[in-house]
Known about the structure:
Distance between the termini: 45 Å
Strand order of the largest sheet: 2-1-3-6-7
Number of strands: 18
Bound molecules: adenosine-5'-triphosphate, magnesium ion
CATH topology of the largest domain: Rossmann fold
Organism: Thermocrinis ruber
InterPro entries: AAA+_ATPase (IPR003593), AAA_lid_NorR (IPR058031), CheY-like_superfamily (IPR011006), Homeodomain-like_sf (IPR009057), HTH_Fis (IPR002197), P-loop_NTPase (IPR027417), Sig_transdc_resp-reg_receiver (IPR001789), Sigma_54_int (IPR002078)
CATH architecture of the largest domain: 3-Layer(aba) Sandwich
CATH superfamily of the largest domain: P-loop containing nucleotide triphosphate hydrolases
Largest sheet: 5 strands, parallel
Strand content: 5-15%
Domain Sigma-54 factor interaction: 135-357
Shape: globular
Mean pLDDT: 89
Domain Response regulatory: 9-123
Radius of gyration: 27 Å
Helix content: 40-55%
Number of helices: 20
Pfam family, one: HTH_8
Amino acid sequence: MTTLNPKSKLLLVEDDKxxxxxxxxxLSEEGYEVSIAESIAKARELxxxxxxxxxxxxxxxxxxxxxxxxKELREQLPLSPIIVITAHGKTEHVVRSIKEGAxxxxxxxxxxxxxxxxLKKALEFSFGEEEGEEMVGNSRAVMAVxxxxxxxxxxxxxxxxxxxxxVGKELVARQIHRLSGRKRFVDLNCANLSDELFEAExxxxxxxxxxxxxxxxxxxxxxxxxxxxxxxxxxxxxxxxQAKLLRxxxxxxxxxxxxxxxxxxxxxxxxxxxxxxxxxxxxxxxxEDLYHRIAGVVIEVPxxxxxxxxxxxxxxxxxxxxxxxxxxxxESLKLLKSHRWKGNVRELKNFVxxxxxLHEGEEVSKADVERFLGITYQEDLxxxxxxxxxxxxxxxxxKLFIQKKLREYNGDVKKVxxxxxxxxxxxxxxxxxxxxxx
Length: 438
Ligand SMILES: Nc1ncnc2c1ncn2[C@@H]1O[C@H](COP(=O)(O)OP(=O)(O)OP(=O)(O)O)[C@@H](O)[C@H]1O
Ligand SMILES: [Mg+2]
């Protein structure tokens, strides 16, 4: 369980005095500090003066419609969730308030329990207080991703999450699920699945459907009823599997393998891939109709090297996670920021973990970082001097040199050939000769 920040300040925009007083009393007892604005004008005035962690907003206010105020609130308090409360819960109001950026919608009369729960979840999301599932970062890119998550979570839209390996795609999927309020998060990794296995996993099967089907098994689709179905590595599906999936996405109906009962599942689909699905559609390896089905909204999670400003925060976060007290010098942080992080956040996380286990001493210098990133050549170089024979020493150096350059340029052989000034074919020959892995 997470503990609520007892100093969370809330703005309650509500013109009905009896309602606002009651709410204030109860919320204060729960440890919130509540300011009341009985009109939009008053709310505007208050947010100029102080910061609020969250806003409770009535829609029918004396000087206007709360719906028209949401956008302004979002701009003024971009990190603070807005919960709309109203007695006139018309569907179009719900839709519009969520669209404008409200976090949730409560229809009067609501129970206090419901309000407190909603509030707690909203504040946790905004400040990432729930353990283990935080999305750390305050770069523009990450803020934009968080914003999008918040916007789409409650909807039924299918979501496609794209990005390099290790950027946090699964984390995004889980966040969306958590905020959606849906039941279960059911995931299926589509990589390395034969068509038979994919179908068995997705649809489930009846006893005897195939030789190894000793008993009935429910498929992921069924398990995800009223929950979220997360299809990871969706770009790896074969054409046949794509066709099967498309059919069930169109109808939301299917049968278990070897069965004839028609099952309807109300799942919400989230998919992820580190492949360029658009390009795959163009070249014909991914069905266009399927793409449109799964990509109701596309969330692109940028690589870590494009949001370097998050690196110190992430380092701090992982240090805390591993209960590790280390201090990175300015220089060492600078080096971390200039690293390419091909494995993105996962690589950074592993790096910190490795360092916490193996590094003695509290301070982490630039040289330490180099060592733990495996980008130091000093030891290898001193070994070179042990060689008696110049030819062997030269070759060893050549190998190290090429390895280092390849690492530096992310394995881009063409680029490296250009940079070090030899022919591409010559470079390939050397890579092969020395058995260098790219
Ligand atoms: N912004 C972040 N804040 C905190 N932890 C993060 C963040 N982004 C990623 N992580 C952590 O990094 C690891 C990799 O993230 P995740 O598994 O979500 O990546 P992915 O994009 O799904 O990778 P892959 O394509 O290889 O499956 C996880 O342990 C995750 O918790
Ligand atoms: Mg993943």
